[in-house]
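Supplementary Note 3. Input sequence used for the single-chain structure prediction.
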Amino acid sequence: MLQVYQNISEYYNFLEEAVNEQEEKNKVSERAYGVEDNTNSGLNLEDGLQKNKAEADNKKDGSNLGKNDIAGENITAGDGCYDENISDGTKKDILNGGLENSIESGEDRVVSNSDGEKDNYAANSENGIEKEKAGDNTGTVEQRFNEGGTDKVIRCPSLYDVLIDMGRTAKYSEIIEYIKKVKRSEGEEQKKLHCLDVLTKMCKTAAKKEVEYIVSHLPENINFDRYKRTKEKLMTYMEIDVSPYIKIVDTKRDKVEFDELNKLVEGVDRDNRNELLDVMEKIKNGEYEKRNSDRFVEGLRKRVYAMDEAKLRGICPNPEYLTFDEGLKAIKEIEEGIFLPELKSNMLQLIDKKLTALKTEECELLVRKLKRELDGKISNTSKIHFYDIRKMRDGESNDKESSFVKVAISTYAYAAEKYEYPIIICDSSLFGSGKDGFIVTPDHIFYKGLIKSGSVDVKKINGIFSKKNGLVMLHMEKGCIKMPCTLSKNDEKNLAEVLTSFVDYLKLKPESRSIKYMSKQEHKIKCCYRCGHRFRDGNICPKCGSSFNS
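The predicted structure, written as discrete structure tokens, is reproduced below.
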């Protein structure tokens, strides 16, 4: 859309306002860069632009304005681009109204009309002045007026020319705005591209000067806030590659942080765990770049790690040679102690692995022993279930038998200790659901009937008997306790006899099933897993004939 001026003076006023606005913007304060504070700025753009201002002032001399400047030698009407040689003095003469006084007739700047045309021109002009409506405000503005009966044309700078001229001393952010204005304009494409090319070069030059000025005025002891704001400001200069400048800023800050962190670490007591951890947290939460803080934190962590590792080795020198009781004691002490999480978790896992292996082996030995003793004595074995510890422990337990075992344990043996595994399950539920019956473990007998449920420590059992009212166990303090059982009377009697002998074996806890014994790799004195008899020579028990290897 063409900008219409009522007269040439109005256009002069437009240029004067534009120049005044530019000169005002050139009076940039420290805050123009957006990275300074009141105490340690060091960035005075006035100093940085003194040279540009001096050069601009030298050009603002209108005394040498001549005909050629007015006649169009320096202002080209045809291409709509403001020649870079036009001086600020010429522009000032235009603003002061000197242009009208300096106009002289010229063949290439005079539009002669016939008498009839002159009459029509004068009749259609306001105060003898008319602006040529040809295009938009991005092209050269032409002002026509009549002087001494002769029509004259003044060609003034276009929007593109003015923006380029203003860009010579403008800041980077201002030139960016000029570029946006040009992109939004609707001028001739060729002129528009030329203007954009010139402004882009100016933009890069301004950006480089401002960035260099910012970096060169940074203090050696740059604080964290100043450092962050400086980097943020540098990242706004998108027309140039600022990575080398950011690297300079990073280097300055790295030196400051290294000195601060080194001083902080040097003052810590290396044998005081709490003090080491306090300094670690202080560094983590401090205003330091991660690339610098990480190496100091890691150094402190390694020191704490060594201290904790030594303490853990004092509690458990070698998990492979732990007895079960030693393992339980070590677990309790470690769980209650304060150690680095990764160390604590790792040691507990090693001990747990060892204790699980020991108890797994014990459970398998006891299951094999009870199986041998019940072999051929129970006619209806559908209600008798031996615990397959490896199958249940390894998660391969999606079959019907495994589901039954899980139901039974979760229903009435849920109070068993972590390393206390079932040996046998005798089901007495109506439909074989596993919700009623009894479970024998190395340490307890858990039971649940229609009315009562509970558990009894095997150490307090004086025997298991088959009576008229069913299967009972004799508690040394509570007397007879009925055990739920739906086996036939003969099977019940045989089961009672085997269980009584087996409970006695559990109570005696012979060396063959002690965790300490099983944790040994070699045995000078062998102990039979079946009957508990001790012997030295051979692998066959001389008492019961059981193979030691089995």
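Confidence is low (pLDDT under 50) at residues 1-6, 28-137, 515-521. The two ends are 104 Å apart (CA to CA).
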